[in-house]
Inverse folding.
């Protein structure tokens, strides 16, 4: 016990030259023991597994209107097929199996979250690196642009972007939600890169005559990515919620053969106040649980990366 | 600040030009006659060089002329709609942000003082839920529970059709000014559900920032110094901990006020609350681009002004900034 602890300490000493790495390592050590992080990780893992295997898991086809369920559906009188037999949650407003739609819906939901985050991350990395690496007028220009994007409330910006497309579909939703995230990533990355710029190892690299591109991509960028990746985990959650908001405003994918939770929720919204909250309840629950999973992971990772919490 | 608005105007100009169908269709709608289209092309000067067009656009924007609303309220100018709807949203936002601050800061403070306790964990859980639940679903849920099922609160609108005198456009304030207490009360009742729904997001964020900031400040050396000097605990808490912790909180409140309109679009929609957010959602669905344009500029303007106020308030909270 004492020996291993000593070894840890020696390791920590040995790696003081690459401060970012040892910080990440110690953060990871703490994370493995954090119940909050583990809860988030388990939820996320389950979500991804379900999304991957949902076509096999779903008892029925999510797009087929099942005659048996249609018979029990009278939309004018707000009657929907109740849970029965192999239809665990009953039918939706069009007589399709709600449970299967929920399972398969995880796929599109995951797709929206991951693609939107990746696009936002890429855009943010480009702008943030540009601003953080150059300083001077390039930095000022990029950051003014970012400030403008930040000055429009995020959902409004997403709405404005979707206005540019003639016809809404899954792709336009993803693009609109993704662009909203670019300024957040860019700002974050620029901030951490500026801190790196002032640090000793960058000064040392510069003194050794390392080329500017080498300093930026080998020294500054890798050490600045931690907070950006943590933010990405949280953005996974917000992009799913934002996509649901877009759907609610009628800007979602109109084709619901391959369902997405936000779209299911907004299509079911009109039945909430007429006493059929369950149609909207299940997709809403799914969104909340998954968003919580991502957020828990991201938040605890952010805490762990904070040098103040280092022990 | 001026730079931000300038860049925004360029972006909006580019946006208007790249809308499907171009600016003429955007301004006139799809059903315009070719003659009307040709005339607007001439009056807008769309045959002139692009940079001149931009200055025209800028000139009109500075004079507040954003054109006529094409679909939401045909016949009135976009500016009229904004002026008419703005008090409703302002009233809603003010109540929502007050709710968020009234609950967020004290709860965040208490949670930080009893870190790791039941209170702390409960309120962290609550604030996480506040972020994870889609606002419009929460709004629907509130509407269903309190308006439809329990019937305690009204489900839609700003006020029942009662005879109330209008002075300022803020219905609650009007009721108080004219001493029509029932009108003020009625407006307040209509405000509760949308305001609570709208307040959840800023509440969650304010709560978490307050908690984190108080935790940070508690460990500062000057707190220990104050304690060892023998200052009374309440004074340390008020003057040293809370005041220093307020800086990041005020920043956050500013950002959240700027973001409120996004939430207002969703909540106003659910509660058919006749504010700017509702107009925005309708403007989008019916492709009323002149109105959309103005509302986006207005939202950005609010954000910029609020941030300026936040920067100025730093000097009040933190004397170190004032003396610099």
């Amino acid at each position: 016990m004492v020996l291993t602890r000593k070894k840890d300490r020696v390791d920590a000493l040995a790696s003081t030259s690459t401060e970012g790495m040892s910080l990440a390592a110690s953060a990871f050590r703490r994370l493995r023991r954090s119940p909050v992080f583990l809860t988030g990780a388990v939820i996320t893992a389950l979500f991804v597994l379900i999304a991957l295997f949902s076509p096999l898991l779903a008892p029925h086809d999510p797009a087929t209107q099942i005659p048996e369920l249609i018979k029990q559906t009278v939309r004018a009188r707000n009657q929907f097929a109740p849970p029965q037999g192999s239809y665990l949650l009953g039918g939706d407003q069009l007589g399709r199996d709600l449970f299967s739609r929920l399972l398969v819906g995880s796929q599109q939901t995951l797709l929206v979250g991951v693609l939107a985050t990746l696009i936002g991350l890429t855009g943010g990395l480009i702008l943030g690196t540009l601003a953080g690496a150059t300083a001077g007028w390039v930095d000022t220009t990029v950051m003014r642009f970012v400030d403008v994007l930040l000055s429009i409330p995020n959902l409004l910006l997403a709405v404005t972007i979707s206005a540019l497309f003639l016809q809404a579909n899954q792709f336009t939703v993803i693009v609109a939600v993704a662009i909203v995230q670019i300024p957040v990533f860019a700002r974050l990355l620029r901030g951490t890169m500026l801190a790196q710029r002032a640090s000793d190892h960058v000064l040392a690299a510069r003194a050794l005559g390392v080329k500017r591109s080498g300093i930026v991509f080998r020294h500054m960028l890798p050490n600045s990515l931690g907070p950006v990746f943590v933010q990405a985990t949280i953005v996974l959650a917000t992009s799913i919620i934002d996509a649901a908001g877009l759907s609610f405003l009628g800007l979602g994918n109109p084709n619901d053969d391959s369902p997405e939770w936000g779209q299911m929720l907004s299509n079911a919204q009109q039945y909430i106040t007429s006493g059929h909250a369950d149609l909207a309840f299940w997709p809403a629950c799914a969104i909340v649980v998954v968003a919580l999973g991502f957020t828990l992971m991201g938040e605890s990772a952010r805490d762990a990366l904070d040098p103040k919490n280092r022990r | 600040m001026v730079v931000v608005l300038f860049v925004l105007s360029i972006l909006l100009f580019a946006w208007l030009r790249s809308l499907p169908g171009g600016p003429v269709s955007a301004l006139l709608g799809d059903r315009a006659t070719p003659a009307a289209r040709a005339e607007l092309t001439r009056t807008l000067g769309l045959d002139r060089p692009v940079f001149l067009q931009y200055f025209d656009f800028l000139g009109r924007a500075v004079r507040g002329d954003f054109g006529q609303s094409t679909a939401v309220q045909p016949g009135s100018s976009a500016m009229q709609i904004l002026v008419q709807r703005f008090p409703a949203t302002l009233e809603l936002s003010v109540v929502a942000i007050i709710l968020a601050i009234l609950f967020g800061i004290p709860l965040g403070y208490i949670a930080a003082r009893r870190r790791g306790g039941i209170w702390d964990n409960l309120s962290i859980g609550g604030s996480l839920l506040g972020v994870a639940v889609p606002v419009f679903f929460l709004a629907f849920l509130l509407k269903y529970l309190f308006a439809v099922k329990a019937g305690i609160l009204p489900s839609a609108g700003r006020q029942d059709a009662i005879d109330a005198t209008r002075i300022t456009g803020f219905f609650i304030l009007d009721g108080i000014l004219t001493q029509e207490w029932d009108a003020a009360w009625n407006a307040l009742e209509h405000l509760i559900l949308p305001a609570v729904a709208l307040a959840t997001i800023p509440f969650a964020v304010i709560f978490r920032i307050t908690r984190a900031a108080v935790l940070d400040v508690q460990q500062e050396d000057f707190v220990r110094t104050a304690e060892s000097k023998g200052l009374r605990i309440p004074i340390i808490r008020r003057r040293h901990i809370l005041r220093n912790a307020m800086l990041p909180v005020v920043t956050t409140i500013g950002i959240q006020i700027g973001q409120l309109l996004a939430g207002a679009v969703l909540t106003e929609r659910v509660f058919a609350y006749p504010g700017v957010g509702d107009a925005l959602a309708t403007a989008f669905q019916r492709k009323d681009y002149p109105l959309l344009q103005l509302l986006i500029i207005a939202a950005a303007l609010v954000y910029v002004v609020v941030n300026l106020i936040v920067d100025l308030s730093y000097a009040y909270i933190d004397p170190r900034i004032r003396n610099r």
